[in-house]
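Figure 2 data, in text form.
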Amino acid sequence: MTGKIKKILRMSPAEIRFRAWEQIRIRYEKQNARRELETVEKPDFNFFVKTCDFELYTGADPTGLWRKEGFARRLCEPLTEERKQAFINNYPERYSLALKRADAFMENRFAFLGVAFTLPDPIPWQKDPLSLNPYPDGFYRDIDIFTNKNAGDIKHVWEVNRLQYLIELTKAAWLSGERKYAEKFESLLTDWIRTNPYKRGVAWASALEVGVRVSALVWALAFYRACPFHRPDVLRAMLKLIYLSGAYLYENLSIYFSPYNHLIGEAAGLFLAGYLFPGFRDADKWANRAWDVLCDQVEKQFHADGGSVEQASFYHHFTLGFYLQTIQVKRLNGQEVPARVMERVRRAIEFSACLTKPDGDMPHLGDIDDARSIYFGDPTHWDFSAWRAIGAAWYGRGAFKYGLKQLPEEAYWLLSNPDQENYARLKAIPPDQNALLLKESGYAFFRNGFGEDAHFCMMDCGPIAHGVFHDDTPSAAHGHADELAIELSAFGESFLVDPGFSNYRGDFDWHCYFRSTAAHNTVEINGQSQAKQGGILQWSRAPRFKQLEFVDHESAKAFCGEHYGYQQQPGAPVHRRYLLFVDNLFWVVADYIYPAKGKGEQTDFKEHFHFNAGLKTAIEEGKQSIVCQGDKATLSIHTLSQTPSPLHFRFTEGADGADGGWISPTYRAVRPAPLVSMAYQAVPPLCVVKVLYPQKKGQTGPEFQKENQQLMFGDYTVIMEEASGDVRVEAGGKHFRICHDGKDGYIHLND
């Protein structure tokens, strides 16, 4: 049975009816596309409600529309001279950067999604910006957006057509008073409208792109209208484009096609088009439909613990940003937001705070897209502190504000004046949980504090992503095959990292590698990934998993979990991992691998250690150790093993191929980084234990001595018992014991 048939059999009757009706609608839409385009392009095309004066729109001064009651609602606080000067005075570096980036756009210079390029003038909107090869023209539904046979990576041409940089041009025009930025904006916008007719071409081929573009247009319109030199024809063109985008989105919501960040981005765009402009025809219908989707979906997009069901940290913030923006618009206009929506969004912000490492970065979990749902400039980075700042203002949570030196720019534009006053009065306090298990998302976090020099580690034991099946049914998803992977920072410096993600289109080997088990800090068995990859983004045979134990003790914090991703392998080996954080000082990782069926067979194992870029890494093979030096600290990894064969270490950094030692923190931003793989052969059951000991630069640490299956350092001894593989950690009168007996592993403290 093919994967496509399996997917059809899994569809609900409602989904089958929806998809069947959609095909009928699309066929009719295509037949009438030319007539529809001719209608909307007529100068007298009236897209206003009867109570709204169309003559104001066509007249010499369309700004009169905003003075008419019932035409528009507030997007943000008024962009007054006082607000402008406050930004220039309080954010001098952001102001300088805004003008610098606007100057680049003046010359058609762009840099995003791992590429930089300069486009000719006028911009070839429907060509790949790197090769300038054209994309197919014609009816938007006829364009295949999933093929690798297109002109290039479709993400690049879409990013140009999202028009988010128009916000930066109009913002620069308003802040600086320089007309040149407004003129460039006018030129780009009018040319885009002329060369991208409604529902034709690659710019209309994805509803998410249209949704993101609406957000860009409403903010660009706000800054442009605040300028003293706006043109009436440009205001009219913007309003019409926002209206047409809303009409398109209402017809094309990805209810079943892509019911995660795509659907939320589309619904947010539809909401902004309808809610902000009640004077548009069908605006109330759009706003109500969009808001219903957003409210209905909030508990489907975020687990009860706040993590995104897509299991991808960048997409977590992409989806969350759409909620933050639409909720703020509601609040700004004096309307209530359901308590359950506010509660789930609060938890999603808490999840963001949990992910934040001491250096301000985050684990690069799952697929990565540079896209920002809240955009005011310079999008390619992992700073989502504005999301926490908004949460601090809304919920009065001092822990959300902790570590933020200033209200981030995105929050400055988005939050109301009372919200900003609440934020200013709020006292920042450190979070109170150094150990936390998020069961639904599947992440355990351990810290020794929340300062810039703190230790941080996390371990993954959860779903690959919502919607991925345990059998051969293929599904697209943004999660990775990263069960039991760990991430670790010592003294505020990131050492073991998730390498991130490479690309969606082209370089398929790199696409697959960064999503595979080998690209994560976990154990690979017989050279296979924990889940089965198909085409681009496709997964099947998602591994089942079990969270066995979580311990939060004064002397040790610990988590134990296992997964069953290798049930197709001989003996069905199960990987169980224990992570101990001892005395807030060092870590013990014990990997116990046992056969679920019958006796174990000779098996190849390979454990991967992906280090952050710029770290100096060396292997001391005779000692079965890895030593990694950073700017602030050193991390040494010492191994005790039950394996009858010797451990074979392999170091690589920036070598040929995707597995040659690379990380990609943002889209297509690959850079060399140390990778150490530790390979061995054994017949399960077996246990391999690592002690990960950090040492601050300039300080003398303990000497490590190894005898048989004992590792001694300072006041500590780690002992692995030969027969059972059980592990003891001893320190003075304290004893921690990791036991493998029975179906579930467990951890004894002071045993």
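Caption note: Residues 207-226 form the longest helix (20 residues).
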